[in-house]
UniProtKB/TrEMBL annotation:
Gene source species: Myiagra hebetior
PANTHER family listed in its UniProt record: CHROMOSOME-ASSOCIATED KINESIN KIF4A-RELATED (PTHR47969), KINESIN-LIKE PROTEIN (PTHR47969:SF33)
CC terms in the record's Gene Ontology section: microtubule; microtubule associated complex
UniProt name for this protein: Kinesin-like protein
Keywords: ATP-binding, Cytoplasm, Cytoskeleton, Microtubule, Motor protein, Nucleotide-binding
UniProt-listed CDD domains: KISc (cd00106)
One Gene Ontology term of the molecular function aspect: microtubule binding
Kinesin motor domain segment(s): 6-349
Annotated spans, Disordered: 222-242
Residues the record lists as binding ATP: G88, Q89, T90, G91, S92, G93, K94, T95
Subcellular location: Cytoplasm, Cytoskeleton
Lineage of the species this protein comes from: Eukaryota, Metazoa, Chordata, Craniata, Vertebrata
The family this protein is said to belong to: Belongs to the TRAFAC class myosin-kinesin ATPase superfamily. Kinesin family.
Biological process terms in GO annotation: microtubule-based movement; mitotic spindle organization; spindle elongation
């Protein structure tokens, strides 16, 4: 607590797809062990180091245990603000790593072996809750950022835009977001699947998958007098019965590829540019935060709503895990190198939990 802590950055390399194999793509990313990977291609020969590297054969359980996710859940229960990012180009395995197969539903759940970091974290969190008896109350909220608009995915009816506010005690927060209490794995997975349903914007599932715009925020707090769905009010000041509140926030960032690579046009092109501006703002903040504290200039968190919401996770009092997902294919070399450089910069960012 209070000590300078580096962001933990891990890398996941997915297998070559059938399409890539038929096309004759070469594998250009090779794991060297001890958290290092080597990129070997024409005019590109570089080695990158991370906290951990999971190659194509790594299971979902291995990623959960090896990334330090279990420890992050325990820290959230102890009252810390914890965040997990997944980023990389579309199709690199971000959503699969976080949520498991997209085809799952309440009637057809995914195989236990394929469950992602989120479901495994929920299980771990509920185990902690049961071991502590009535000391914990669990609630969840689900947000998306779409074209610089923040939307609540758990509120009934069409998603409505919510305002972002700032206060000295809370920092940036979403006003009137719905928070739903839960006590079982079935309940929280139901909320997760509800929020992950495609929205009626005509989005192309092959380009910037719908989960790529969402922030899943899972908060852990002491029990309150009210139960059920509620809007999260500001924390009362000078409460007679102070309580700890920790948060565990999952962020599935949109695909990082250039617009010309997607073939999008019209509204989808506008959407892609909006997403990329948001990711560019995030990358700019990370680049500045990666500098030594004495040499940092102003960090432009206000450049986008994404960076405003993630300000505490990136450079404040939070604890952050970043999961970089890449393809080993030679066809994706440019985007893979971009993700690797992005992740390398993030490793130099520090926070004071």
């Amino acid at each position: 607590e209070g000590r300078e802590t580096r962001l933990r950055v891990v890398l996941r390399v997915r297998p070559l797809t059938c399409t890539e194999t038929r096309r004759g793509d070469r594998r250009v990313v090779h794991s060297l062990g001890d958290g290092a990977v080597h990129v070997s291609a024409a005019r590109h020969d570089a080695t990158f180091g991370f906290s951990a590297v999971f190659d194509a054969g790594a299971s979902q359980e291995a990623v959960f245990e090896g990334s330090g996710m279990r420890q992050l859940v325990e820290l959230a229960v102890d009252g810390f603000s914890c965040t997990v990012f997944a980023f990389g180009q579309t199709g690199s395995g971000k959503t699969y790593t976080l949520m498991g197969p997209l085809a799952q539903s309440e009637t057809q759940p995914a195989s236990p072996a394929l469950l992602g970091l989120m479901q495994r974290s929920f299980t771990c969190l509920l185990e902690q809750s049961r071991s502590r008896g009535s000391d914990l109350a669990l609630s969840a909220s689900y947000l998306e950022i779409y074209n610089e608009q923040v939307r609540d995915l758990l509120s009934p009816g069409p998603p409505c835009n919510l305002p972002l506010r700032w206060s000295k005690t809370r920092g940036f927060y979403v006003e009137n977001q719905l928070s739903v209490e839960f006590e079982s794995l079935e309940a929280i997975v139901g909320l997760l699947l509800q929020g992950a349903e495609p929205q009626p914007q005509g989005w192309d599932i092959d380009f910037h998958t719908y989960a790529g715009r969402k922030l899943e925020n899972l908060s852990v707090a002491k029990p309150s007098a009210s139960t059920g769905a509620k809007a999260s009010p500001p924390q009362p000041q000078g409460s007679a019965c102070p309580s700890k509140q920790g948060t565990l926030c999952f962020v599935d960032l949109a695909g990082s590829e250039r617009v010309k690579e997607t073939g999008s046009s019209g509204e989808l092109s506008v959407e892609a540019n909006s997403i990329n501006r948001s990711l560019l703002a995030l990358g700019h903040c990370i680049s500045l935060l990666a500098k030594p504290r004495g040499k940092r200039t102003h960090i432009p968190y206000r450049d986008s709503k994404l960076t405003r919401l993630l300000a505490r996770s990136l450079g404040g009092s939070g604890i952050t895990l970043m999961v970089a997902c890449i393809s080993p294919s030679s066809h994706c070399l440019s985007e893979t190198l971009s993700t690797l450089h992005y992740a390398s910069r993030a490793r130099r960012v520090t926070t004071r939990p």
